[in-house]
Amino acid sequence: MIGRHGAPDNVGLMADSEYSDVVFSVHDTGDHVVRERPRGGAGAWTLLVLAGLVLLATVPVALVVLFVLIARGHGFGYVALRAGPPIVVVLAAALVVNALGERLTGRPSVGTRMMLGIGLLGFGATLTAPLGYAWSDHGSNLPVLIAAAIPGSVALAGVILIGRAIVLTRGALRRQERMRELRARGRRVDGVLESVRFLKTWAGGAQPEFEVVTGYAGERRVTARLVTEPERVPLPGARLWVHTDPVAPDDTDVLVELDATVPVEFDPRVEEYRRPSGDGGGGGGG
Questions:
Q1: CA-based, 20 to 30 A from 258: which of 66, 103, 121, 243?
Q2: Other Cβ atoms within 10 Å of 244 Cβ, number
């Protein structure tokens, strides 16, 4: 990529500066904001699939063991001892799915929805299966049908969440490729952070979200979302780099980041940007 002064930049390389945790997005909001990530290898994707399969397989095992032990009237200590191992495997697999989903796509909402979707599918399917046997044993049985509707709905919700996670993954990977393309073949110009407005929402549980306006290349402006830590909110006037498409310089599909060559002054109102305890936050639907 040719820089703003005609010098070649790091072609196609992801930004690796002290400001990489300050993320701008001209497309997405909240938990859907895509962070730049190295391209994931086949091994990482295979591990994600395996972790998902382990989670899907062990949720029913953990539930059955737990229900059987409770039904037999065993004490808490015995139940914890016997049901503990499969529950630990479930939790470990869920954490791996969540972490890898975010790491490979750069989009936190992917890991969350994938983890919850697989868990709900396993939970709902486990509770629906015995009701299905009861239906087949007794023929048309309205109470059984009504009882199966609840866990069946849970399983359906899991399928929907998994489908949504796949859609979000595909979108995130397209965003990643666009970022790499802008870094590799785009033109980097100087920009300035003109305004910062706190939206009183938090992405990823604790990162405040802002609407910002960036000025660059003379009179051009682009509105974006900023997601960062409470201590890392740049003040208006901060210098930026804006990576634009040389073929379509007026296109607002740009990559925005803080200028890594100069110090940045951050907003001292840190406590104002922390999510209040008990606040559900929010950030991005879907």
A1: 103
A2: 23
